[in-house]
Amino acid sequence: MKTTTKTTVLSIFSALVFFTACSSDDDGSSNEVLLTDDEIPSEITTYVSTHFDTSTITRAEKETENSGITYEVLLDLNYQLEFNSDLEIVEIDGITALPDSVIPELILEYVTTNYPNQVITDWELETNYQQVELNNGYELEFELNGDFIRLDKD
């Protein structure tokens, strides 16, 4: 996908995610709140300033559900971040290369060695594994310790 098209698609997706009116579950168990700059936890602002130093937070939401709290953060350079209730990063979506500093070392080494002409545009931490997406659309899964599991060619 061309960068311009991917930029447009991600921008539209981000806008839908962040600007769509939030609806609660039937039992009222979901609640999303837009955060002001002063309400954004310092762990999140520190993470952004450390790893995305040329970017700024344009929108931050705190969502409370039965399963806990999550924070969705949109940056001005088309990155979307998600933090769990412990304020740990669990997902990063972008349209361009993610900063090397946000990718676990073993995963970065694997991608650099095996896909030297590709860059990581998305990273996600699941319960039992980690996943990255490359700019060619390939999704790579890794164990939590960084060992390669499999390739998914979408």
UniProtKB/TrEMBL annotation:
<feature type="signal peptide">
    <location>
        <begin position="1"/>
        <end position="23"/>
    </location>
</feature>
<dbReference type="InterPro" id="IPR021533">
    <property type="entry name" value="PepSY-like"/>
</dbReference>
<keyword id="KW-0732">Signal</keyword>
<dbReference type="Pfam" id="PF11396">
    <property type="entry name" value="PepSY_like"/>
</dbReference>
<feature type="domain" description="Putative beta-lactamase-inhibitor-like PepSY-like">
    <location>
        <begin position="70"/>
        <end position="149"/>
    </location>
</feature>
<protein>
    <recommendedName>
        <fullName>Putative beta-lactamase-inhibitor-like PepSY-like domain-containing protein</fullName>
    </recommendedName>
</protein>
